[in-house]
Structure formats: C-alpha cells, structure tokens
Amino acid sequence: MPKTALITGATSGFGAACARRFAKEGWRLILSGRRTERLEELRRDLGEAVTAVITLDVRDREAVFSALQDLSDVDLLLNNAGLALGLEPAWEVDPEDWETMVDTNVKGVMYCTRAILPGMVKRNRGHIVNIGSIAGSWPYPGGNVYGATKAFVQQFSRNLRADLLGTRVRVTNIEPGMAESEFSKVRFKGDDDRAGAVYEGTEPLRPADIAEVVFFAATLPPHVNVNTLEVMSIDQSWGHLAVHRERG
Ligand code: NDP
Ligand code: 8X3
Which CATH architecture has domain 4-231? Predict the structure, then answer.
C-alpha cells in the first residue's frame, strides 16, 4: 500500500523538490500552496502520484481546517510553506512583514498540524516533518522575527514529541542553511540582483538536497525518530561572536 504525503508550499523550492523525490519512490501526494497553476503543473508532471491538489493559504485557519481535517490517509505532513520578508534591523521593519511571517511560519504550521494530527493519533502512525531553519538556532543581523518564527518551529517540534510519547507518530525538524530557491527573491520582494547576490560565489544547498534529507528521515524504520537535522552547504559556517569596539 503506497504511503501518502501532504506537502504545504509544494509550488516551489523544497516543497516541489520533495514532491518529485517522494513521487519517484511511489508515494501518493497531496500538494498544496497558493499558486494553483503551479500545483496543476506538478500534477501534470507527476501524473497519478498526485491524488489531490489543494489551493490553500496556510494563514487562513478556517480554510486549513476545512481542507485538511477530513483527510483520512495522510502518513506524512510536510510543514514546509514559509517565508522570510526583508533583512532590515528591527527598528526599521514594516510590522506587516513581521505579521506575515508569524502568520505563515508559526500559525500556518500550528493550523496544519492541528488539522492533521488527530487522524494520525487515531491511526497510531504518521510523521510530521517541519521545515525549520538554522535561523531558529543562530541569530544574524536582520533575522529578527524570521529567526524567531523558526525557533518556534524548533520548540513546537520538540513539544509535539513530548505530547506524542506513547504513540507511533513521529516528529522531525529539518533545519537547512542557505539554499537556492525562490526564498531570497521573496525575501527581497522580487529584487533578483539582491537575491542572486546571496548565493554568489558559493555552492548553496539545492532544493533536491533538502528533499533527500526529508526522504531519509521519512523512510527510516518506524521506531526511529530523527528529532532534528541541521544541514548546511559546505560553503557556510557560523560567524564569530560580534563585538562592538568604541570604548576609549
Ligand atoms: P520558496 O520561496 O521557493 O518556497 C516557499 C513555498 O511556501 C512556496 O511553495 C509558497 O507557495 C509557500 N508559501 C508561502 N506562503 C504561503 C502561504 N501563506 N500559504 C501557503 N503556502 C505558502 O522557498 P523555500 O523552498 O526555500 O522555502 C521552504 C521552507 O524552507 C520555508 O519554510 C523556508 O522558511 C524554509 N527555509 C528555507 C531556506 C533557504 O535558504 N531557502 C533555509 C532554511 C529554511 P505559494 O507562494 O504558491 O503559496
Ligand atoms: C533560511 C536560511 O540563513 O537565510 O532559513 O535564514 S537563512
């Protein structure tokens, strides 16, 4: 019996790469995102692997519950939909951008999880895979609320595991570093030059790399729970602790 993965944010980047990776291995897919034409394109490419496409904004609580809570066959929920907006210092940010990140990266993950989890607990099997970020552990200038939303994803993942102890439902947080997708184009609101500069002279992670990691965690024996996996390009590492020197 093929397994079914529900992927949020399947229209681009990691989500689309995961759809392709899981389809190749015979999984059934329920794909969601806001851009319907992209979902339909994937459906055309992946054929019968795609059992449903759902146009869905994860920020809309009612829409999430009405679309997802009656799905009876989800083995894997990939909470991938998310975004960063801007890189300004906290005192210059447009508060609307902060709200969009919280609504998507925090509330969207909460709603999708809450809609899908009862079925998994009832069936006593399933896997929630969240896409966190290195930004959830490591601060950087301009990361302010984006990093904080991913710190939420990290701790939410751990707390879900605490609630789920005694069930066979697994929870994993994958924490990628710099990866080339539409992420930076979205962060810099369509500024391709600024987005391109993020990856210039490096070999960043590719969406297919993250799909490989998600697939690995999802296909380990069912008693093995990968709690967290932090993944970076070979060209990325941590910065030094910053010191401001202006004293006499
Ligand atoms: P992309 O911009 O390529 O993909 C983001 C996906 O999220 C799109 O499919 C988009 O679909 C979807 N999405 C955004 N907002 C919403 C919404 N309100 N409702 C539903 N879907 C939404 O970026 P990535 O693939 O890189 O990002 C995927 C995840 O990985 C995000 O959570 C991101 O924070 C995280 N991440 C990215 C890293 C990177 O460097 N690229 C590193 C670490 C983590 P649509 O617009 O059609 O709705
Ligand atoms: C995306 C990685 O370092 O741009 O989550 O925040 S980073």
Answer: 3-Layer(aba) Sandwich (3.40)
